[in-house]
Amino acid sequence: MPPSTLKRVTSTDRDVSPPPAKRRAVATTAANFFTPTSQKAPEKVTFHVLHDTLLVGRYNERPTISKLVKIAAFDFDDTLVMTKSKNRFARGADDWQWWHTTVPSRLKKLHQDGYVIVVMSNQAAVSLRPTSKTPKEGMRSLNNLKGRVTAVLNALDLPITVYAATDHDIFRKPRPGMWEQMLRDHGLLDAGDIDHEKCIFVGDAAGREADKAAGIRKDHSCCDRDFAANVNMPFRTPEEYFLGERVKPFVRGFDPAAYVASRPTSEIDRSNFAKKHDVEIVLLCGSPGAGKSTFYWQHLQPLGYERVNQDILKTREKCMKVAAEYVSSGHSVAVDNTNADIETRAAWVGLSKQLKVPIRLVHFTASAKLCEHNDTVRALAGDLMNPEKRTMLPKLAFTGYAARYREPKVEEGFDDITENDFKFEGSEAQKAQWVRYWVS
């Protein structure tokens, strides 16, 4: 295997596969052959689906909780187990082995010390809703996952609950949905019931950079580390927790709390845009999630601008028709679309000339990661952040914008261009949601 494909694995040379179960000869009699299913011993591992996308597997009953709770939470793949085949994804239900020989003993010690043990794993390859369009691979992955989880929980023989997020929704790490569901399942409140300082989350998606000398590739994301930060838990990688290795440097793609701290609300310049003409067109240019609609409602709508938005009107032609009607009736117009390319902007410049009104542009310069964060928190953080009930955009919305984008120039026919660097403006409750990690 080439060094560039190596994962962060343990340094042991011992076989860490679980021992094969010994087969016992069982005498088949008429009595046990015809035993009704209702009288057979119940399965120790049970599965059910919540909210259409969250698979929950549980070994025996939930533990009884009567005092301040300590939670030990783990990622699944490349944290508790890894594939025997050395493939990135398991080939079947039996394609697993312990990540390290110490994993079972460490978990059993946690149980003895009174910890509630849970597993929280992203499993986007798994399909929970079979349809004619569902790839067979998705259902096969579901069966493989159930098989591996069942084998692992039976081997541990501990009251563990496994949560598997199968969609890109509120349950997918680093978003807090799985944690909040776990609290509901155990009848816990985050404030008061949890001993956060004694909790731990262990996962391999930690934002670590590649180590070329050791032939180790970079982590695929930082979602486990960010998830732990979102739910206020100490974090360790498998190497740190099971092997006692030192903490390695890491990089986050986007840190919302640091972004807000670098742009205090008190320093926001609210006078960077002013109306210059009785009737004019203002074109907004920027990626989805760059803050265009928020800018309109907070700055342009109070100045009397009418809003034209293609998400609502569906076509550019309809937008231009409505804009022309507004201008003809003496109202200024803000065009709240992405307007990424020169050809699109030229159509609006042409309309302004036809209507004989000035046209200006506000250029939103937020980075791609910031825009994706804004879109995700808006869609998933609840009504507090999403008064227009917008759904989360696909990745293509951001990559498509980047492919079409050409920097706007005054020479295209604009009276002026105002640069707008995104600054968070909202209540403390909204800020508390915004500064969490929402994208991996």
Number of domains: 2
Walk across the major sheet and give the strand order.
1-2-7-6-3-8-9
CATH fold label of the largest domain: Rossmann fold
Q: Structural class from helices and strands?
A: alpha/beta
Helix content: 25-40%
Q: What string gives the helices and strands in order?
A: HEEEEEHEHEHHEHEHHEHEHHEHEHHEH
- Strand tally, please? 14
CATH superfamily of the largest domain: HAD superfamily/HAD-like
Distinct helical segment count: 15
- The assigned CATH architecture of the largest domain is 3-Layer(aba) Sandwich
Average pLDDT figure: 87
Integer-rounded radius of gyration: 27 Å
Give the DSSP E fraction (strand runs of 2 or more residues). 5-15%
Organism: Baudoinia panamericana (strain UAMH 10762)
Region (Disordered): 1-22
Protein name: PNK FHA domain-containing protein
GO biological process, one term: single strand break repair
Walk me through this protein's architecture.
- With 440 residues, the chain is of the alpha/beta class.
- The protein folds into two domains: 3-16 and 39-243, HAD superfamily/HAD-like (Rossmann fold); 265-434, Rossmann fold, CATH 3.40.50.
- The chain is 31% helix and 13% strand.
- It contains 15 helices and 14 strands.
- The strands form three sheets. Strands 1-2-7-6-3-8-9 form a seven-stranded mixed β-sheet.
- The chain is elongated, with a radius of gyration of 27 Å.
- The two termini are 27 Å apart.
- Residues 1-5, 11-15 and 21-34 have low confidence and may be disordered.
Short description:
The chain has helices at 30-33, 103-112, 136-156, 177-185, 190-193, 223-230, 238-243, 256-261, 292-300, 310-313, 316-328, 342-355, 368-380, 395-404, 428-434, and strands at residues 45-50, 54-59, 71-74, 81-82, 97-98, 116-122, 161-165, 200-202, 235-236, 281-285, 306-308, 333-335, 359-364, 417-420. It is α/β, with parallel strands linked by helices.
